[in-house]
């Protein structure tokens, strides 16, 4: 007997042609362009299958074995499997580490940690946003305006990179931390091209009596593949998103220490506070389709193929960076240890906004990014360029050399138009309207990008 409402059985194409078409357009945009946003990736077909599965139908507030609603016997197994794989992916012993896989994404994960372990107005120190840090590490702008809730609800004093080298200034951090006495120091960032000195962070945290949290969102794939230093050795808490270099669904995780702290002889006492902060303090029902999909990604993250992928991500970022440097361009810190480079355009007399705008016209996607010392946060002086997404499409070093060539030509065109039309953004943009060089280069970029496969769909499947 079929009494199901008819639209439940219809394919999307006939149920909602408008949305179907938009999805086709987005697939076409993704496959036809060069995707260089450092935090993005192209996830796999099995991850997408789990995301679009029946797991999305179920409410399961609580934790495996202790739910508020019935019918969770399968969801309990899904979440437990995800937790087990999360610990295994980072080689963690469940006696020493636990994990909560319910955060909807990275920002909620960070907020849950602060809610769990801090009191309102406790002090935190994270890397400043213009130094490459993230909003949720306590960001307020140079006028003191509290931009992130993490600076509204907690007292934040950011630490910074050394303006000459672009590397984190650990000595200054230590000096500031000894004065400020934060309850938590946060490491990790969104636009930092170098690895993290966790031993030094730990030393500073111990000196001023702070907890140490790493937000490894950008590099969680690199940490899983042991291609970056391991935060777990030194940190109390590690948070992450799961859709960046880890190449999973959009989601978040919080890893927390368990058991007795050897230094203090006391129980860490993080687990129940963090679990309670995720739910019921901040979130409602877990997104089980995300958790199921994350389990799929975490299984793959333990394979030799994933390690090969991550090594290639690093090699590609390095090839891109070295090519830009060989052309005389200025990268913050002079290069990269990870998956991204930060290109300082100020010596050229260009802004990140102009480069991002032109690249969009060329079907190259990257983002304007603050570089340390920028006069205005509204007009950042650099662009951030990442390798994870295009590496998922099979690109290797020589392809990233070609991408650097495209970017260099884009910078030249920005400058040429600046010369002919002036620096004012609206005049400068006019110089790109119907510019034949833009059209010709866009064709080249699209021909280049379209030659590579996508992980979860084919060119032929695009139906519009
Ligand atoms: N939006 C992410 C990034 O681009 O780094 C961070 O949340």
Molecular structure report:
There is one protein chain. With 464 residues, this protein is of the alpha/beta class. The chain folds into two domains: 54-301, Aspartate Aminotransferase, domain 2, CATH 3.40.640.10; 313-457, Aspartate Aminotransferase, domain 1 (Alpha-Beta Complex), CATH 3.90.1150.10. The protein is built from 17 helices and 15 strands. Strand 7, helix 8 (198-208) and strand 8 (211-215) form a beta-alpha-beta unit. Residues 39, 106, 134, 190 line the site of D-serine.
Q: How many β-strands, per DSSP?
A: 15
Please identify which CATH superfamily of the largest domain we are dealing with: Type I PLP-dependent aspartate aminotransferase-like (Major domain)
CATH class of the largest domain: Alpha Beta
The low-confidence runs, each spanning 5 or more residues with pLDDT under 50, are none
Proportion in helices: 40-55%
Pathway: One-carbon metabolism; tetrahydrofolate interconversion
Function: Interconversion of serine and glycine.
Cofactor: pyridoxal 5'-phosphate
GO cellular component, one term: mitochondrion
